Amino acid sequence: MRRKRIISCLLSLCSLTLCLAGFSSCEAQTSLDEGEQIFADALALTAEQAVFYWEETVSDGDNSYFRQVSSYAEKDNDGNILLDDEGEYKSRKIQVIENVNQKTVLEIYCGLSEAKDKSDSVNMLFLTEYDENQNVVNELTREMTAREFYESGDFEEYLPVNVLSELYGMDFSDMDFDFEDGGIASKGYVAEITFRPTGEYLDRYEEETGKSSMFANADKVFVEISYGRIASLVVYSEKQISGSSLTYEQEDYCFQIVYLGPKFDVPKH
User: Taking the CB of residue 154, how many other CB atoms lie within 10 A of it?
Assistant: First the structure.
Protein backbone atom coordinates (compact mmCIF):
# COMPACT_ATOMS: atom_id res chain seq x y z
CA MET A 1 0.00 0.00 0.00
CA ARG A 2 2.80 2.37 0.91
CA ARG A 3 4.55 1.63 -2.37
CA LYS A 4 1.34 2.43 -4.27
CA ARG A 5 1.05 5.76 -2.46
CA ILE A 6 4.69 6.65 -3.31
CA ILE A 7 4.15 5.77 -6.98
CA SER A 8 0.94 7.82 -6.99
CA CYS A 9 2.74 10.83 -5.52
CA LEU A 10 5.54 10.53 -8.07
CA LEU A 11 3.05 10.36 -10.92
CA SER A 12 1.25 13.44 -9.59
CA LEU A 13 4.55 15.32 -9.28
CA CYS A 14 5.52 14.39 -12.82
CA SER A 15 2.13 15.52 -14.10
CA LEU A 16 2.48 18.86 -12.31
CA THR A 17 6.00 19.34 -13.67
CA LEU A 18 4.84 18.62 -17.22
CA CYS A 19 1.89 20.98 -16.77
CA LEU A 20 4.10 23.83 -15.56
CA ALA A 21 6.61 23.18 -18.31
CA GLY A 22 3.81 23.28 -20.85
CA PHE A 23 2.49 26.56 -19.46
CA SER A 24 5.93 28.17 -19.57
CA SER A 25 6.48 27.03 -23.11
CA CYS A 26 3.26 28.80 -24.17
CA GLU A 27 4.83 32.18 -23.49
CA ALA A 28 7.34 33.08 -26.16
CA GLN A 29 9.36 36.14 -27.01
CA THR A 30 8.09 37.75 -30.17
CA SER A 31 10.26 39.41 -32.81
CA LEU A 32 10.08 43.16 -33.31
CA ASP A 33 8.53 42.74 -36.75
CA GLU A 34 5.82 40.43 -35.41
CA GLY A 35 5.27 42.70 -32.42
CA GLU A 36 4.92 45.75 -34.62
CA GLN A 37 2.22 44.03 -36.67
CA ILE A 38 0.37 42.83 -33.56
CA PHE A 39 0.48 46.37 -32.15
CA ALA A 40 -0.74 48.00 -35.38
CA ASP A 41 -3.56 45.47 -35.82
CA ALA A 42 -4.67 45.93 -32.19
CA LEU A 43 -4.86 49.71 -32.56
CA ALA A 44 -6.89 49.38 -35.75
CA LEU A 45 -9.33 46.85 -34.28
CA THR A 46 -9.74 48.82 -31.05
CA ALA A 47 -10.64 51.95 -33.02
CA GLU A 48 -13.49 50.04 -34.71
CA GLN A 49 -15.24 49.10 -31.46
CA ALA A 50 -18.45 51.00 -30.66
CA VAL A 51 -19.26 48.97 -27.54
CA PHE A 52 -16.76 49.20 -24.70
CA TYR A 53 -16.22 49.85 -21.01
CA TRP A 54 -13.03 51.47 -19.80
CA GLU A 55 -11.54 52.83 -16.61
CA GLU A 56 -8.67 55.29 -16.36
CA THR A 57 -6.72 56.23 -13.22
CA VAL A 58 -4.12 59.00 -13.14
CA SER A 59 -2.00 59.91 -10.11
CA ASP A 60 0.35 62.87 -9.93
CA GLY A 61 1.41 62.27 -6.35
CA ASP A 62 -0.87 64.84 -4.73
CA ASN A 63 -4.11 64.15 -6.58
CA SER A 64 -5.84 61.23 -8.23
CA TYR A 65 -8.15 61.36 -11.22
CA PHE A 66 -10.54 58.61 -12.28
CA ARG A 67 -12.76 58.24 -15.31
CA GLN A 68 -15.18 55.44 -16.11
CA VAL A 69 -16.93 55.27 -19.48
CA SER A 70 -19.40 52.71 -20.78
CA SER A 71 -20.75 52.61 -24.31
CA TYR A 72 -23.20 49.75 -23.89
CA ALA A 73 -25.32 47.62 -26.20
CA GLU A 74 -26.44 44.02 -25.99
CA LYS A 75 -24.32 41.33 -27.64
CA ASP A 76 -24.91 37.68 -28.51
CA ASN A 77 -22.75 34.81 -27.25
CA ASP A 78 -20.36 35.29 -30.15
CA GLY A 79 -19.75 38.96 -29.31
CA ASN A 80 -21.86 40.37 -32.13
CA ILE A 81 -23.89 43.50 -31.38
CA LEU A 82 -27.62 42.80 -31.42
CA LEU A 83 -29.96 45.08 -33.37
CA ASP A 84 -33.50 46.15 -32.47
CA ASP A 85 -36.49 46.26 -34.83
CA GLU A 86 -35.35 49.63 -36.19
CA GLY A 87 -31.84 48.41 -36.97
CA GLU A 88 -30.25 50.30 -34.07
CA TYR A 89 -27.99 48.76 -31.44
CA LYS A 90 -30.21 46.98 -28.94
CA SER A 91 -30.47 48.65 -25.50
CA ARG A 92 -27.81 51.19 -26.47
CA LYS A 93 -26.85 53.61 -23.68
CA ILE A 94 -23.87 55.56 -22.37
CA GLN A 95 -22.49 56.30 -18.93
CA VAL A 96 -19.63 58.65 -18.01
CA ILE A 97 -18.32 59.17 -14.47
CA GLU A 98 -15.37 61.38 -13.51
CA ASN A 99 -13.84 61.61 -10.03
CA VAL A 100 -11.16 63.82 -8.53
CA ASN A 101 -9.63 62.60 -5.28
CA GLN A 102 -12.46 60.04 -5.01
CA LYS A 103 -15.16 62.70 -5.28
CA THR A 104 -17.54 62.71 -8.23
CA VAL A 105 -17.27 65.83 -10.40
CA LEU A 106 -19.22 64.69 -13.47
CA GLU A 107 -21.96 62.20 -14.29
CA ILE A 108 -23.49 61.66 -17.73
CA TYR A 109 -26.19 59.18 -18.70
CA CYS A 110 -27.76 58.84 -22.11
CA GLY A 111 -30.28 56.32 -23.39
CA LEU A 112 -33.87 55.19 -22.99
CA SER A 113 -35.30 56.72 -19.81
CA GLU A 114 -38.45 55.50 -18.10
CA ALA A 115 -41.01 58.10 -17.06
CA LYS A 116 -41.64 58.61 -13.37
CA ASP A 117 -45.36 58.94 -14.10
CA LYS A 118 -45.36 55.61 -16.00
CA SER A 119 -45.94 57.32 -19.37
CA ASP A 120 -43.85 56.58 -22.46
CA SER A 121 -40.10 56.09 -22.16
CA VAL A 122 -37.96 58.67 -23.96
CA ASN A 123 -34.32 58.77 -25.03
CA MET A 124 -32.71 61.33 -22.73
CA LEU A 125 -29.33 62.84 -21.85
CA PHE A 126 -28.67 63.66 -18.18
CA LEU A 127 -25.53 65.65 -17.30
CA THR A 128 -24.64 66.70 -13.75
CA GLU A 129 -21.52 68.53 -12.59
CA TYR A 130 -20.44 68.82 -8.94
CA ASP A 131 -17.98 71.02 -7.06
CA GLU A 132 -15.41 69.72 -4.57
CA ASN A 133 -18.06 69.71 -1.84
CA GLN A 134 -20.38 67.55 -3.95
CA ASN A 135 -22.80 70.41 -4.56
CA VAL A 136 -24.49 70.42 -7.96
CA VAL A 137 -23.14 73.33 -10.02
CA ASN A 138 -24.58 72.46 -13.41
CA GLU A 139 -27.40 70.26 -14.68
CA LEU A 140 -28.53 69.54 -18.21
CA THR A 141 -31.43 67.37 -19.33
CA ARG A 142 -32.50 67.03 -22.93
CA GLU A 143 -33.90 64.52 -25.37
CA MET A 144 -31.11 62.67 -27.16
CA THR A 145 -30.42 59.11 -28.24
CA ALA A 146 -27.26 57.30 -27.21
CA ARG A 147 -26.27 57.12 -30.87
CA GLU A 148 -26.61 60.90 -31.25
CA PHE A 149 -24.48 61.48 -28.17
CA TYR A 150 -21.89 58.91 -29.28
CA GLU A 151 -21.56 60.57 -32.68
CA SER A 152 -21.45 64.10 -31.25
CA GLY A 153 -18.33 66.12 -30.59
CA ASP A 154 -19.09 66.01 -26.86
CA PHE A 155 -18.30 62.28 -26.71
CA GLU A 156 -15.16 62.35 -28.85
CA GLU A 157 -12.76 62.67 -25.92
CA TYR A 158 -14.08 59.39 -24.48
CA LEU A 159 -13.42 57.30 -27.58
CA PRO A 160 -10.53 54.86 -26.99
CA VAL A 161 -8.71 56.19 -30.05
CA ASN A 162 -8.58 59.63 -28.39
CA VAL A 163 -7.90 58.46 -24.84
CA LEU A 164 -4.97 56.43 -26.21
CA SER A 165 -3.95 59.07 -28.71
CA GLU A 166 -0.27 58.85 -27.78
CA LEU A 167 -0.18 55.14 -28.52
CA TYR A 168 -1.84 55.80 -31.87
CA GLY A 169 0.80 58.43 -32.62
CA MET A 170 3.78 56.19 -31.82
CA ASP A 171 5.88 54.07 -34.16
CA PHE A 172 7.78 51.04 -32.95
CA SER A 173 10.95 53.04 -33.57
CA ASP A 174 9.79 55.34 -30.74
CA MET A 175 10.01 52.42 -28.29
CA ASP A 176 13.15 51.28 -26.50
CA PHE A 177 13.14 47.59 -25.54
CA ASP A 178 16.78 47.39 -24.50
CA PHE A 179 16.40 47.02 -20.73
CA GLU A 180 15.72 44.19 -18.30
CA ASP A 181 11.91 44.16 -18.50
CA GLY A 182 11.72 45.37 -22.09
CA GLY A 183 10.42 43.17 -24.87
CA ILE A 184 7.41 41.59 -26.52
CA ALA A 185 5.89 38.33 -25.33
CA SER A 186 2.86 36.40 -26.50
CA LYS A 187 0.87 33.62 -24.88
CA GLY A 188 -2.27 32.28 -26.51
CA TYR A 189 -4.61 35.19 -27.20
CA VAL A 190 -2.55 37.65 -25.14
CA ALA A 191 0.46 39.75 -26.17
CA GLU A 192 2.45 41.98 -23.83
CA ILE A 193 4.65 44.87 -24.90
CA THR A 194 6.97 46.53 -22.38
CA PHE A 195 9.03 49.52 -23.48
CA ARG A 196 10.48 52.90 -22.63
CA PRO A 197 9.90 55.92 -24.88
CA THR A 198 13.00 57.09 -26.70
CA GLY A 199 14.40 60.52 -26.00
CA GLU A 200 13.83 61.44 -29.63
CA TYR A 201 10.12 60.65 -29.28
CA LEU A 202 9.74 62.71 -26.09
CA ASP A 203 11.46 65.70 -27.69
CA ARG A 204 9.39 65.40 -30.87
CA TYR A 205 6.12 65.08 -28.98
CA GLU A 206 6.80 68.18 -26.89
CA GLU A 207 7.87 70.15 -29.94
CA GLU A 208 4.76 69.15 -31.93
CA THR A 209 2.17 69.51 -29.16
CA GLY A 210 3.69 72.09 -26.81
CA LYS A 211 3.24 69.79 -23.82
CA SER A 212 5.04 66.91 -22.17
CA SER A 213 4.29 63.34 -23.16
CA MET A 214 2.32 61.16 -20.75
CA PHE A 215 5.40 58.90 -20.92
CA ALA A 216 7.85 61.68 -20.00
CA ASN A 217 8.70 60.29 -16.56
CA ALA A 218 8.11 56.64 -17.38
CA ASP A 219 10.53 54.02 -16.13
CA LYS A 220 8.57 51.56 -18.26
CA VAL A 221 5.31 51.36 -20.19
CA PHE A 222 3.24 48.17 -20.32
CA VAL A 223 0.68 47.43 -23.05
CA GLU A 224 -1.50 44.34 -22.97
CA ILE A 225 -3.31 43.11 -26.06
CA SER A 226 -6.05 40.51 -25.69
CA TYR A 227 -7.94 38.84 -28.55
CA GLY A 228 -6.38 41.31 -30.96
CA ARG A 229 -7.54 44.46 -29.13
CA ILE A 230 -5.95 46.78 -26.58
CA ALA A 231 -6.73 45.56 -23.05
CA SER A 232 -4.59 47.82 -20.87
CA LEU A 233 -1.96 50.52 -20.78
CA VAL A 234 0.06 51.10 -17.61
CA VAL A 235 2.79 53.69 -17.06
CA TYR A 236 5.27 53.13 -14.24
CA SER A 237 7.83 55.50 -12.75
CA GLU A 238 10.63 54.83 -10.30
CA LYS A 239 10.42 56.72 -7.02
CA GLN A 240 12.98 56.99 -4.24
CA ILE A 241 12.00 56.33 -0.65
CA SER A 242 12.60 59.52 1.37
CA GLY A 243 15.80 59.35 3.40
CA SER A 244 16.87 56.14 1.71
CA SER A 245 18.70 54.95 -1.38
CA LEU A 246 15.93 52.41 -1.99
CA THR A 247 13.47 52.90 -4.81
CA TYR A 248 10.05 51.55 -5.63
CA GLU A 249 7.87 51.29 -8.70
CA GLN A 250 4.82 53.58 -8.82
CA GLU A 251 1.85 53.22 -11.14
CA ASP A 252 1.25 56.73 -12.47
CA TYR A 253 -1.31 55.87 -15.12
CA CYS A 254 -3.59 52.90 -15.69
CA PHE A 255 -6.09 52.36 -18.49
CA GLN A 256 -8.12 49.14 -18.73
CA ILE A 257 -10.76 48.32 -21.31
CA VAL A 258 -13.18 45.49 -22.06
CA TYR A 259 -15.62 45.31 -24.93
CA LEU A 260 -18.84 44.74 -23.03
CA GLY A 261 -19.24 46.31 -19.62
CA PRO A 262 -21.76 45.77 -16.80
CA LYS A 263 -25.36 46.86 -17.22
CA PHE A 264 -26.51 50.16 -15.69
CA ASP A 265 -29.71 52.15 -15.52
CA VAL A 266 -30.40 55.51 -17.15
CA PRO A 267 -32.19 57.81 -14.63
CA LYS A 268 -35.95 58.24 -14.91
CA HIS A 269 -37.37 61.50 -16.25
Answer: 16
Q: Give which of 58, 52, 56, 83 is closest to 70, Cα–Cα.
A: 52
Q: Report phi then psi at 54, rounded to 5.
A: -135, 155
pTM score, whole prediction: 0.86
**Which residue type is seen at 215?**
F
End-to-end CA distance of the chain: 74
| Residue closest to 230 by CA, chosen among 27, 43, 56, 49 | 43
Comparing C-alpha atoms, which of 43, 93, 100 is closest to residue 67?
Answer: 100
Helix, strand or coil, per DSSP, at residue 141: strand
List the alpha helices (DSSP H) in 111-170. Answer: 146-150, 160-163, 165-168
pLDDT of res. 23: 34
- Cα separation, 95 vs 260, in Å, equals 13
Q: CA 121, CA 114: separation in Å to the nearest integer?
A: 4
More confidently predicted of 256 and 243: 256
CA distance 110 to 114: 12
- Tens digits of residue pLDDT in 127-155: 999 998 899 999 999 999 999 999 999 99
Give residues with Cβ within 8 angstroms of 13, minimum separation 6: none
Residues with Cβ within 8 Å of residue 236, at least 6 apart in sequence = 218, 219, 220, 221, 222, 249, 250, 251, 252
Q: Helix, strand, or coil here: 105?
A: strand
Say if CB 97 and CB 70 are below 8 A apart: no
The pairing of strands 28-29 and 175-176 is unpaired
